[in-house]
Amino acid sequence: MLLLERRPVDSSLMRWASPVLALVLTVMTGFVLFLAMGKDPVEGLTFFFITPISDLIGLAELGLKMAPLLLCAAGLTVCYRAKVWNIGAEGHFLMGALGASAVAVQLMDMSGFWVLPVVLVAGILAGMLWAAIAAGLKTHLHCNEILTTIMLNYIALNLLLYAVHGPLKDPYGFGFPQSVMFAESALLPDLIPGTRLHLGLAFGLLAAVSVWVLFARSFIGFQLNVVGQDQRAAAFAGFGARRLTWFAFLVGGATAGLAGASEVTGPIGQLVPQVSPGYGYTAIIVVFLGRMHALGIIAASALLALTFIGGEMLQIAMNMPKAVTGLFQGLLLFYLLTCDAFIHYRVRLRAPVRKPTRVAAPAATQEA
Amino acid sequence: MELLTNILAAMVVAGTPLLLVALGELICERSGVLNLGQEGMMLMGAVAGFVVALTTGSLAVAVFASVFAGIGMALLFALMAVTLAANQYAAGLALTIFGTGLSAFVGAGFVGESIDGFERVAIPLLSDIPVIGRVLFHQDLLVYFSLVVFAGIWLFLHHSRGGLLLRAVGEDPDAANANGLKVLVVRYLAVAFGGGMAGLAGAYLSLAYTPMWTENMTAGRGWIALALVVFATWRPERVLIGAWLFGAASILHLVLQGLGWRASTELLAMLPYVVTILMLVLLSWNPARTRLNTPLSLGQPYRPGR
Amino acid sequence: MTAALRLKLENIVKEYPGCRANDGIDLTVGAGEIHALLGENGAGKSTLMKVIYGVVQPDEGRMIWNGHPVTVDSPARAREMGIGMVFQHFSLFETLTVAENIALGLPADEARDRRKLDQRIREVSGRYGMALDPRRYVSTLSVGERQRVEIVRCLIQESTLLILDEPTSVLTPQEVTALFATLRQLSSEGCSILFISHKLEEVRSLCHNATVLRQGKVSGDCRPGEVSAADIARLMVGDDTPISTQVSAAQTGDVLLDVRNLGCKSRAPFGTSLTDVNFQLRQGEIVGIAGVAGNGQDELLKALSGEIRADWGEIELDGVRMNALSPGQRRKLGVAIVPEERLGRGAVPGMSLAENALLTASGQDLVGRGMIRFGRVRSFSREVIRRFGVRCIGEDSTAASLSGGNLQKYIIGREALQNPRMLVASHPTWGVDVGSAVAIHEALVALRDEGASILLVSEDLDELFQLCSRIGALCQGRLSPLARTAELSIEQLGEWMAGGFGSAEATHAAA
Predict the structure, then answer these.
(1) Percentage helix, strand, coil for chain B under 3-state DSSP, each rounded to 5
(2) Where is the ABC transporter domain (chain C) (predicted)?
(3) Alpha-carbon span B303 to B285, nearest angstrom
């Protein structure tokens, strides 16, 4: 009989092995999937995982997709450590993009070093504002944050659509729902000349390092951990859950807002309806896969960034649906949670009949 | 009068998928399991139903396919959240993300196809009642079915031993185990039922409401249903009323445009989501009221033994 | 093997990862016998009864029921056989009625006719003097009434062996007397009873035979009526552990804490609200609050710690009004709290002892400019471990890895080392081994002698009478008068615990 039993101590090996195991299982499933679709699995997996990053341009593209994921994930890490289930990074991101664009469009004729910071701050503030709504709903009106943040994501998307169809629409854009191209002074500088990689990745890495310092050294990080692990102990110690919830939400809103702002001022250069291919949702996977740890989320954001470009590559090279990206991401999270169970539990084979003696020899030989 | 009847009838239609999925989730939550994967299960139900309807031409077979797709997804969830005692929030999110990806992948070749969906069937005599007849008894079969399920669940919860068992497990699984009840079996059944209902709700979207398949066609209805269960404080009769009210909210922009209101479609499209938040606020500002009916073990994994 | 033997256990072994909870236990219970199972917390009593009731499976050993070897693989099987169990934390559903609760434990065909079931509940409960209304919701019942529901449920299932786990710990002395009468009546009708307790006087007055466990093994059998409580205690704890503390008289000083007309609405779903609580604490004294659990102890503790704000009345510490102060601000004024649940309130299970020091001691210069000073945190933690004899590998051990007694010593040490002016301790020795209990009592007395005021909330009346200079009781959120321990009889305290005090009287006797 297979038995699942609680380990006396959580396995720290499994804690870090689990994401790797999940990736292996995902790749294996992908292998089977390609076979089932009558495609060459080795070729398919190569196109998905290897080809996109086999040159500098490809690596730069990876960094480009990593930036928003890393920023969103850094903020969500703060939230999830405190068990604030903020699913709203997508909404914060969209609002950040919208806020930054609104300001950038106003500052079209301006030049000067201050324009870009103002635009970015506008994005951060817009993200924080959106997060603050959910925070207020949670701390003062006791609304479940999962539901409110999801709803706010949908509302943010519609607001953005409204903006590109209405107030922010480029009057000379041939009727396309998009804003004008921003002025040069409002655009992020490139990190590597000749590629699209921009300063956003530096923001992301900085955010990850800040998260590391927050949880490894600071007292507020400790308080967030306590609230997350044990609310009653936090209440007993007097760590105000409201204050910490607000802190987590605002950090989450700020980073995701910055991600949105960096996206419109970086590779896109204008506000378009499809500014996010679901970065805010994918960032959730990044956080879980990265074990809510700075180094982990950096690695995980690289992997998930790869699923975006790998999916595009498959679409171009093998005529596969682009939905492969979502499928891989979903599989990865699913396997991860399954593997995570073995951090706390272990499987033990137990013979159905118990002998009232204790012998050192393996039980199997006795049963036989 | 004619206009009102039409609006009410459209409200019932728009509310039916919400009713189906919310009733399923209600049973699931009553057993103490919170499944945030409604959206994923619905999408799988929708795509499975549509693909099967297109290939077999049989709506009946298609509905079964939807239900089984939903149950299959729910069992995946149960494996994680019940057997492996994973965090229910994370497992539910995983299910939604996975279901969204998988349904888009499966349905990629079927976007743009169309089928003949469920037709309206008037129930003799009953459909002749003024207003109510048109609103309730001149609808498609799935609407009638949703009403039957509602009545069944109401009876089950309040007047059956099974309902008592379900409530007991949801309140205190440890005590239930000590009383000799099979907690994991009850939870598995409840989760599977929720999955089947979500699958059916998906079928309603792709086979009756808008007989076609598009990516993410649920548009957050799974999430709205989750809010609806909270709003209904875990009572089926309130789920029914709530589902129809949300149905009304989701067709409001059509009504307003029909009345000649000039407002941006995008802004009006926000309405159901805004209404959902307002409903949550209305209900949640006094936590004591929600807490009274909340299944006490909701969201907590249970492992028998020690 | 005589026919009168109801239950016989042979060489029961149950091993958990890292601990051999039952190590070859033999036990026999005859028909109609009231048999005590004694032992310290952690001696293996609960594991053994879980084995008997089929909640866990033994790794080795045999169980013989009415002369036949049996395997009990689930509680459902145990009940079919006729084994009934009354848990310490009741296995009742608060949102269901008494009858619904009982119906859940019965086979479907017996439970179908509710009217007949109601009739049977009335009949059985009436016969054994445990009046019950089958239509009431369990959430509206007192603890004593809930226990009756559990017992009646077992009787309706026609149990021939009733296992009671620490049944008296939640009862007033008067309720205990009534329970014992019921148990004796059951015994005379042939029902066997396995009575689990650590209260020796009760066991001596009620039980025919006793089996004593120590560290998973049987350390002795005896007829409790024929030996002294001290002899039994020795069997329980072994020879090398002191059994009790010698408490010197208190040197009482000025009033430190003044609580007037305190009222607090409960925030918990089925909690108790505090009404009109009045009392004063003086420097250098220990004041005891008795009472059955769930009568407002938790709320009182939280109102004093600042976790919930008082809705009415005044709380003053040395003339400073504390009503609006947060837990952190109160701690700065010298308030220390030791909550009832040590794991999951007093300490975060998955965090190290050092991190757990930060929970309440951050004000001891352990945090500077928002950053944690890990060196100081560790040395503070090591100091607690050393001064209070906490047995652990080091300050990096997780709180969850410590035994109840050692963790409690750590928590009390953490508070004591901050030199509090007032300490509120709730059930500090509940579920703690005797050796640690003595150490905890000594720590409390030492703190008292340094001039601190201590409020001791406990269900253990022996503990209260031993340590406190004044004692009162909480009942349904109201506090009785506080009486000098020397002038208070246990009967009087029992009446207070049951609510037998006028509220006017309570206000007067506050001083």
Answers:
(1) 75, 0, 25
(2) 7-240, 257-501
(3) 33
Q: Which residue has the tokens 């000098």?
A: C484
Q: What is the pLDDT of residue B112?
A: 87
Strands C453-457 and C371-372: unpaired
Residues of C in contact with A9 (CB under 8 A): 401
Listing DSSP states for A197-262 in one string gives: -BTHHHHHHHHHHHHHHHHHHBHHHHHHHHHHH-HHHHHHHT--HHHHHHHHHHHHHHHHHHHHHH
Calculate how close chain A gets to C400, using CA atoms only, in Å. 10
Burial of C43 (0-12, 13-18, 19+ CB in 10 A): buried
Query: Binning pLDDT at 50, 70 and 90, where does residue B249 land?
Result: confident
Contact between chains at C85 and B178 (C-beta distance less than 8 A): yes
- Report the pLDDT value the prediction gives residue B212, as an integer from 0 to 100: 92
Buried b (16+ CB within 10 A) or exposed e, B221-242: bbbbbbbbbbbbbbbbebbbeb
**Residues, chain A, total?**
368
Query: Token pair for residue C363?
Result: 């004000």
Q: How far is C23 from chain B (nearest CA, A)?
A: 17
The Cα of B12 is separated from the nearest Cα of chain A by a number of Å equal to 22
Look at the alpha carbons of B7, B239, B188, A17 in this order and tell me if their dihedral is positive or negative: positive
Query: Which of 2.60.120, 1.10.3470, 1.20.1330, 2.40.50 would CATH assign to domain A40-319?
Result: 1.10.3470
Q: pLDDT tens-digit profile of A305-315?
A: 999 999 999 98
Kindly report the CATH class assigned to C255-353+420-508.
alpha beta
pTM, to two decimals: 0.90
Question: In chain B, count of helices (H) and strands (E)?
Answer: 14, 2
Domains delineated in chain B: 2-293 (1.10.3470)
- B175 in contact with C at a CB cutoff of 8 Å? yes
| C203-239 tens-digit pLDDT | 999 999 999 998 889 998 999 889 888 888 888 887 7
Chain-chain contact of C348 with A226 (C-beta, under 8 angstroms): yes
- pLDDT tens for A136-163 read 999 999 898 999 999 999 999 999 999 9
Which of the other chains make 3 or more beta carbon contacts under 8 angstroms with chain A?
A: B, C
User: Reduced to 3 states, what is the DSSP secondary structure of residue A170?
Assistant: coil
Residue partners of A298: CB distance under 8 A and separation at least 6: A70, A205, A208, A290
Query: Residue B289 — pLDDT band, cuts 50, 70, 90?
Result: low
- What is the rounded radius of gyration, in angstroms, for the C-alpha atoms of chain A? 23
pLDDT band at A268 (very low <50, low <70, confident <90, very high): very high
**A352 pLDDT exceeds 60?**
no
Which residue(s) pair with C7 in the sheet? C29, C65
What CA–CA distance (Å, rounded) separates C509 from B16? 65
The CATH number assigned to the domain with range C5-237 reads 3.40.50.300
Nearest Cα to Cα of residue A326 among A316, A317, A315? A315
Output the average pLDDT for chain C.
89
DSSP state of C511: -
